[in-house]
Structures are given as structure tokens and as C-alpha cells.
Design a protein that fits this description.
There is one protein chain. The chain is α+β, with helices and mostly antiparallel strands. The protein has one domain: Gcn5-related N-acetyltransferase (GNAT) (Aminopeptidase, 3-Layer(aba) Sandwich). It has four helices and seven strands; from the N terminus they run ββααβββαβαβ. A hairpin with a 2-residue loop joins β3 and β4.
Length: about 160
């Protein structure tokens, strides 16, 4: 199966096209680093989209990844259940990547994705020295993923086919 990877970016916070608040959805930053929690989120959200690149990593690598001062994690809850999450990864050049983003299986199609992505982008722009927000997705992702990114104002800048 051929996979297409799409790279999207936003170069100014004014480019964000916000989606209205999703009633009942609360988004909380996980301020205490717990690599097993991030690993759980990665598995919960990513299993249906074949996120497998990090599953074989030893715990030491997960711990190093999650405890990096350049990584921040937010979790979306709905009525006490995990509805989704996103991770933001920064670097010294001013790029902030939406490293992981997604909804838990029971929350897809309920109107939460646009608002969660709006929060991810807004939060990325609030990180000091951010000059660009970017993300990549691929053809294995949800059929609406690419259109959601574009609807929030992210622009396609590169496409790769494998």
C-alpha cells in the first residue's frame, strides 16, 4: 500500500481559523510528566491509525521523550473519559510541531476534532518564541484529518509518496 504524507504549516497566529468550543469538552495540560501515560495515550489514540513507530521503544526512550523540556502534553476529557490528546514539541529555531494529535475511538464524529485542533494550534502559538506551527499527517489517518487541518488555517507545504 502506498502512503502519502502531508506536511502543513502556519506562520502566524492570525492565520488560525478557530472552531467553536465543543460543549462539555475540557482540555487540560498534563503538567507532571509520566511517560507511561503518554505511551497509553499514543496507543489509545493511535491504534486505529496504525501508529506503530514508537511501540517498540524501550521505557527509557519513552521516559527521555516525555521528560524533555521541549515536549508538552494536553488531554481532552468528556464526562470524565479521555476523548483525545495532543503533544506539542518545540525547538530552538521557533518551530512548534503538533507531534501527536487525535481523538479516542468513541469520540470520533462527535464534533470534537475541530475544537481540539484549534486549542492545539492556539496553545502552540502561546509557547514563547514560536514562529511557525507545523504538523504532518498521512493517508492512513482519518478521512477528515487533512481537511480539518486545512479548515483551521494550516497550509500544505510538502507532500511525499512512499
Amino acid at each position: 500500500m502506498k502512503v502519502t504524507t502531508y506536511y502543513l504549516e502556519m506562520n502566524s497566529p492570525e492565520e488560525l481559523i478557530k472552531k467553536a468550543v465543543a460543549p462539555g469538552l475540557s482540555i487540560v495540560e498534563a503538567k507532571i510528566n509520566e511517560f507511561k501515560f503518554n505511551k497509553f495515550l499514543y496507543q489509545l489514540i493511535g491504534e486505529q491509525w496504525k501508529w506503530v513507530d514508537k511501540l517498540s521503544l524501550p521505557d527509557e526512550e519513552w521516559e527521555s521523550y516525555v521528560e524533555s523540556p521541549d515536549l508538552r502534553t494536553w488531554v481532552a476529557y468528556y464526562e470524565g473519559a479521555i476523548a483525545g490528546y495532543f503533544e506539542l514539541s518545540t525547538n530552538n529555531s521557533g518551530d512548534t510541531e503538533i507531534a501527536y494529535f487525535g481523538l479516542a475511538p468513541n469520540f470520533i464524529g462527535k464534533g470534537f476534532g475541530g475544537y481540539l485542533l484549534s486549542k492545539a494550534i492556539s496553545n502552540a502559538w502561546e509557547i514563547p518564541n514560536t514562529k511557525r506551527v507545523w504538523v504532518h499527517t498521512c493517508s492512513l489517518d482519518h478521512a477528515s484529518a487533512l481537511s480539518n487541518y486545512k479548515a483551521r488555517g494550516l497550509k500544505l507545504y510538502r507532500e511525499e509518496r512512499e
